[in-house]
Amino acid sequence: MKNEMFERDWFRLDNAAKIYPAARSAKWNAVFRMAAVLKREVNPELLQQALEDIIDRYPSFRVTLKKGFFWYYFQYLTELPSVSEESAFPCSMMPITGKDYMFRVLYHGNRIAVEVFHSITDGTGCLSFLKTLVFRYCELCGAQFDEIGDILHYDDNPVPEEIEDSFGRCIDRSKGALPRTEPKAYQIKGQKEKRGVLNVTHGSMPFGQIHAAAKRYGCTVNTYFVAALTLAFMNRQQYERKAKKLPVRIQVPINLRKMLGSTTLRNFAGYYNTTTPYGDWKFEDIVAELDSQLKDNINEDYCQRFINSNVSLEKNPIIRVAPRFLKTFFMDISFYMVGESVMSCAFSNIGNVNTPEIMKEYVDRFEFVLGAQKYMCNSMTCASYNGTTLVTFSRTSKDPILEREFFKILTEHGIDVTVSSNRR
Amino acid sequence: MNKCRRCGVIIDGAAVNCPLCGAHVNEGNSPSVYDYPAVSVKTQKQIVWQWSLFISLLAIAVSMVVDLAVNKTITWSVHVLFGLALPWLCIARPLLLKFNLRKHITWGFIGIIALIFYLNGWVNDFAEPWAFWLGAPVAVLVWQSVLEILCALDKSGRADYEMALTKICLLSLICIGISFAWLKECTWGWYVCAGRAAIDVCALCIFAKHSYFGELKRRLHI
């Protein structure tokens, strides 16, 4: 496939990227963060040097978002990005000015954080960028690497497959599409924080303990976490005295690259919503239910139908000729109707972060934080590194209801959880 | 590390309360490497303050435009300017922002000096600039006296008062310069102010040498 980026200084947004600029508002846009906590304090000069060295390896990051008549589009930027000291809440608003980068590299103490507007990339792409950045930073600090594992080397040239729109390539209409409508799910509604405030709670635990607990229940670590999260919602709903009890639906992102063979660094993720009807569930029953849901449904056929249902809308001739403001209006409505109101919480697990052994001498842990959601109050992520699993909750409400219930379940299972938060 | 008895989790870093249940844990440890920067959240008062400033500025701008368009002067719009700016500066601002005695006094005196100038303009249109050669120096002298008293009494805020006295010294010197440039002469009022402020600063240099210079360096980012 011929890639547009090497011929023009602008390129189109991929299918998943289109919803985020449309759904943004004056108060919200979709930003997430990946961070590496080093064992020593970050040197800003070296970090700036590292960023300048790697930026050309990631051409899909070297862009700004501009408004076209029919769609938003990415415009290539010539000026270099710069690092800045962290001074706001994590994943704070990233305004679309048409001039600035749609990502930022922040440092504070020992932490290097990359915050990205979701249109640029998904978790996999951002993690790849962060790993290359930290790798180059470690090199500038004097580290000697014999092997680099799956890290993309900053001296290599980007290949077209890394910046392709894989949604467009993988569409196969013969497989059909997914049904779009789902009933509403239970959500925890607490007292809202002030605008711009994001409360982040990290829970760190030994990976061995989590793995053993998951094995005890006969499931994967991912399923174990989804089950604990579902039970936390169930427990909370039992406590609330609402007559109408709703199902708990957790959105689990799927990395489509593995399923459909892609190496793109742009968005290429789908999701599956696990649904657990309200009831008096035991933990092992929830595990069995979710395990069968996840095993039976997440397969190549599901991913293909997921892509078809998303891309077919974009390719609709009536939608294509509609001006951007009309598309924005309807996409915003659909984001509410089929997006956040039908799920209780998003749970994104990037799994075990692999780095060369030598990097473990420099890096303490990797963090993954989802920014504020537009309608939901809570989201949860997970990242494991060097034998430690880090679960991160982000919320826009004041009271940490969900994380309290969740960590209570984990401690009851005998897991040692160490908690920290960005609020004092 | 501390353990929360209620939640059963270990608390990382210097937190004295459990992030999950808010329960007090025995003692804070040293700051953690996982700490985030402290970010202040806008309070309701700050939002009200910003909106009051915006509305005041808008009203002043609109009145000036209308006054200029209709009367070709800014006669009555100056009244609007002072009518809005003075209460906002001297009353609303110190009350709506975090209360700070030194700032409150500073803004109070700025307001008084502005009022003296306003009255001078209103009475004789600055034909006789008594606000500059008499009114303002007297206000500054009173302001200086208040700061000196507070400097002696309030030990915790002494650094702030010392810096305020230094600023008054600079202000007096600037006003002497303006006097020569504007009136081609300088009146005794500003000489008294400058002399007294210079005595204050010299006293600070002699008796509070280390703390004074340390604070000065810190504020000037030297």
Describe this structure in words.
Chain A is α+β, with helices and mostly antiparallel strands and 424 residues long. Chain A folds into two domains: 4-170, Chloramphenicol acetyltransferase-like domain (Chloramphenicol Acetyltransferase), CATH 3.30.559; 179-356 and 370-421, Nonribosomal peptide synthetase, condensation domain (Chloramphenicol Acetyltransferase, 2-Layer Sandwich). Chain A is built from twelve helices and 15 strands. In chain A, helix 2 packs across helix 3, helix 6 crosses helix 8 and helix 6 crosses helix 12 (401-412). Chain A is globular. With 222 residues, chain B is mainly alpha-helical. Among the domains of chain B are: 1-39, no CATH class; 133-222. Chain B is 70% helix and 2% strand. Chain B contains seven helices and two strands, in the order ββααααααα. Chain B has helices at 44-71, 75-96, 101-124, 130-153, 158-183, 188-207, 209-219, and strands at 2-3, 10-11. Chain B has a two-stranded antiparallel sheet. In chain B, helix 1 packs antiparallel against helix 2 (75-96) and helix 2 (75-96) packs antiparallel against helix 3. The longest helix of chain B has 28 residues, at 44-71. The mean pLDDT of chain B is 81. Chains A and B meet through strand 8, helix 12 and strand 15 of A and strand 2 of B. Strand 15 of chain A pairs parallel with strand 2 of chain B.
